[in-house]
ABC transporter substrate-binding protein
Amino acid sequence: MLKKFNKKLMLIIMSLTVAATVVACGKTEKTNGEKVDSSNGTKQEISIKAYDQDKNEINLSFKESPKRAITLNQSPTEMLLALGLGDKMVGTAFLDDEILLEYKEAYDKIPVLSKTYASLESVLEKNPDILIGWPSNFDEKHLGTVEELESKGIKVYIPKSTLKGEKKIEDVYEDILNLSKIFEVEENGQKLVGEMKDKIEKVQEKIKGKEPVKVAVIDSIEDTKSLNTCGNVALEDKLITLAGGKNVFGDIDKSYTTVSFEELIARNPDVLVVNYFMGSNLSVEQIKNNPMLKNLDAVKNDRIVLVPLTEMMGGVRNADGVERLAKGFYPEIFK
């Protein structure tokens, strides 16, 4: 009787061991930060949904995370630095403003290929495995199309927040999470997106219940009769809304467009938001001294908010931009 019991117990133990082995064989494990299929020891391919320069959807896949990245504009440069990927960057280009102070030390170690658009020659010299930049980089005048670069063995990621069509803050979050997945630093991506969301939520909690202020953007002054402003397609329009404002040109289905001074005067905003960047000559004094603008309520009441253009374009500065706008819209709340 005892022998039969022991034999039965042994069979149960053997069955459990086989079952555990089968389960373990199908598991995907991480080794040194890389996803590995333990059934055959091969690394899983990294794959995400992305877009080409014409906003056609493409599948972007990598056998391993990139080791030699080049960022072609400021916002993707700061995204990678914020994700802790400075050591993976072999080149950058095209700043619109000074790099954020917290990333300057890491940025200064990376070669700057150009102050504006990087040339194909300068890019190829660095032997990159991925390029990250705005769609304007990827045409025959600059680096060639995404397809042409892929044929050279170079992957391309164009941030969704820079593509044609309406832009939203969710596109920025998606870009950050996509890049964190490509480079296998997903925890960093989740943390960064969480911090941005928290900052915006805190701003919105402070302004809760407030009547939206009427806002107009001056992106540039074209001549004595017209200026460039923001329509509802631009991300800036959405950031204004998040900060408690209402874009008086939000009925225009464009990103940025030219309007007359007369049209701005007719809409008479409570606040003027003035974008500035390196090389821009726009200033508060210039706005105040403009004879066409002096009778606007925003000018008479000294309600002019200067914002760095980098905070209004898709990137890690967007939450700071929302906070800056809200402080300009509701200074009494943020004293």
Residues 196 and 319 are 5 Å apart (CA to CA). The longest strand covers residues 46-51. The chain has two domains: 43-158, 209-329. The chain has a mean pLDDT of 89.
